[in-house]
Amino acid sequence: MLDKTAIRNMFEKVKAEGRDALTAPEGKLLCDAYGIAVPQEGVAASSEEAATLASGMGFPVVMKIVSPDILHKTDAGGVIVGVKSAEEARAGYDTIIANARAYKADAEIKGVQVQQMLTGGQEVIIGAVTDGSFGKLVAFGMGGILVEVLKDITFRLAPLDKNEALSMLDGIQAAEMLKGVRGGDPVDRDALADMIVRVSELISDYPEISELDLNPVFATKEGAIAADVRIVMDYSQPEPRHRPSQDEIVEAMNRIMRPKAVAVIGASNEQGKIGNSVMRNLIDGGYKGGIYPIHPKADEILGHKAYKSVKDVPGEIDTAVFAIPAKFVAGALTECGEKGIPGAVLIPSGFAEAGAPELQEEIVRIGRKYNVRMMGPNIYGFYYTPENLCATFCTAYDVKGSAALSSQSGGIGMAIIGFSRSAKMGVSAIVGLGNKSDIDEDDLLAFFEQDENTKIIAQHCEDLKDGRAFAEAAKRVSKTKPVVVLKAGRTSAGAKAASSHTGALAGNDKIYEDVFKQSGVIRARSLKQLLEFARGVPVLPTPKGENVVIITGAGGSGVLLSDACVDNGLSLMSMPDDLDTAFRKFIPPFGAAGNPVDITGGEPPQTYKNTVKLGLEDDRIHALILGYWHTIVTPPMVFAKLMVEVKEEMAAKGIEKPMVASLAGDVEVEEAAEYLYQHGIPAYAYSTELPVEVLGAKYKWARGAGLL
Questions:
Q1: pLDDT tens profile 571-590
Q2: How many Å apart are CA 531 and CA 518, to the nearest integer?
Q3: Cis ω on the peptide bond leading into residue 207 (within 30° of 0)?
Q4: What is the SS3 assignment for 384?
Q5: What burial class does residue 648 get, using C-beta atoms within 10 Å of its C-beta: 0-12 exposed, 13-18 middle, 19+ buried?
Q6: What's in the keyword line of the UniProt record (predicted)?
Q7: CA 335 to CA 314: how far, in whole Å?
Q8: How far is Cα 661 from Cα 646, in angstroms, rounded to an integer?
């Protein structure tokens, strides 16, 4: 084992030489130090030395140029594989040197690496990249030339443990190839996982390693060995982000979200002004705490005594809502700091988003100096319904519930408010984050984690300032409460040029996708999904197993519902013979048992009742998807009331399972769907996808939280 002092000295030497990449022999030293298996090799300084080295390790061998100025060796004609004799080794040496000179005349050439040639096994890549938001990430995928063609790769935050490393082997599309196909041997999964863990330790120990490739790694049933190593360095390390402790975050967020007193800076008696709307919402929304309007000239605003400055207000203030132009914010924020106010809600725009980053940098400095946590700027404010708190210029909101939602965008925030009101989805909070000069998604997670009024957290974001802090918070919170995220901009690839295969494949959204999975986050693909998950997931009881059964009155919807199950990672139960026989007792001969259970469209209400009751009673079935088809025999509201009756009858016996419903028919199905939803069965008119997506989201959370 090479000690860390020796590695540090090697890095200092590379830096002193002005290099941003290690040579292959230097890379081998690192691999040896961290127990990463690599082939026998040596560096030849002459054709004769190349022949001697090759003969000593046994043919065939691979020969590669060693030059700090040539990173992509193949492009330079600097690689020859399958060298079978001493004579070929001599000739190969001369050819490689000549090709390198032709490729880059002024390249520093240190010799030619002679390496034991590996054959057989599955070629994979193990790599690492540094992301601006998430920091160090490890990658795994199909290797060799396939890495660039298939782009089949998965990422995890480093460092990681053996279980997470094993999950990476199953996280690529070609996972089955590693298990052995068409008579081939399966690879040694433990050896691959160990190598992934060692790479994660290496890049965590040395932050200056920017990118790393082990490609290809030859994986066989006996083990794993890295045929080539490429390591790129970056010595300019960013300043670590200022981060309060968990206790400090929770203490500040509790005072901001549940204040005993609120100041409105820029309060106004004039209708149409933001300061007037904020005041009216605080009053009309029913907030019972102290309300202190701040205005340089007014004596009273909307029945409340006005003050020239927050410093003139007697007693403590927990939250100050700003409704003044951007250029005046810094001065008022300083007064808040001097008053000891812990939270500022910055509604004004005109900061970084409007080409004035210096204004935003100034308020960040002030907030840090006085320990004032800031929400915004450029936001609509926030709602916290348990306190009847509407600290916003939007409409007052009073439908209380258990979903906490946030958005980076004001427009998305308005959509959240509108949907919540229209769908009668009670919320605990709706929060605008805007420019995220300070408070961001992980601060909200810390608050909602300990908020007894919140059961699910749904967040819209365009970026994450500190992806690693978010991932750590989400991983913790999602064990007890579902966390749903709509990440905007998922189609844009990372624009940063990369020197390694891994770096080139680290498209921004792929990293978000994999880190969200690693953190137990449910990812919404659209605004509609975000809102429906926030509404539906808390309604459903947690399933006790993976077996899902579809009961439908229409064969066509049964097929679409089955497709949706596959799309959403749900497992359609293989129907046991005895259960198949039990279902057939209730359906006509031309119906179909199996799964889906097709009771056909002309059946009376009793058929729906009997089959659904059987599905709830049988312990082998863990969740039901209902497909209803509008008929005269069983009208929509008859179906809906009957399903609720069966559900409540079973609940009285202690039997509760998640049920969702898809309703096809004329407009009456809308009323029936709403009735079902209000009674604990998420139901959707005209859609076979949405109910299954909601059930799939519940399953994703339950799996991630270890509840299945």
A1: 999 999 999 999 999 988 88
A2: 23
A3: no
A4: strand
A5: exposed
A6: ATP-binding, Nucleotide-binding, Tricarboxylic acid cycle
A7: 14
A8: 14
Strand order in the sheet with 41-44: 41-44, 111-116, 61-66, 79-83
Sequence-ordered strand ranges (E) for 576-632: 597-598, 623-629
Q: Which residue has the tokens 């929770």?
A: 250
* Cβ-based neighbours of 512, under 8 Å, separated by 6 or more: 464, 467, 487, 490
Strands 456-461 and 400-407: parallel
Task: State residue 366's pLDDT score.
Answer: 98
Phi and psi dihedrals of 119, rounded to 5?
A: -135, 160
Q: Is 422 helix (H, G, I), strand (E, B) or coil?
A: helix
Q: Which amino acid is at 270?
A: E
Q: For all residues of the chain together, what is the average pLDDT?
A: 93
DSSP summary character for residue 235: -
Res 489: pLDDT: 81
C-beta of residue 526 within 8 angstroms of C-beta of residue 485: no
Contact 30, 231 (CB under 8 A): yes
pLDDT value for 495: 40
8 A C-beta contact, residue 347 and residue 278: yes
| Gap between the Cα atoms of 673 and 641, Å rounded | 10
Residue 52 CB burial class (10 angstroms; 0-12, 13-18, ≥19):
middle
Residues whose CB falls within 8 Å of the CB of residue 298, separated by 6 or more in sequence, listed in order: 267, 268, 269, 306
Terminal-residue alpha carbon distance, the chain: 42
pLDDT score for 501: 52
Sign of the alpha-carbon dihedral angle for 278, 283, 285, 289:
positive
Q: Write down the pLDDT at residue 2.
A: 59
Residue 556 host element (H or E): helix 555-567
**Quick one: tokens of 587?**
């359906």
**Residue segments in the chain with a per-residue pLDDT below the cut of 70:** 1-2, 144-150, 491-507
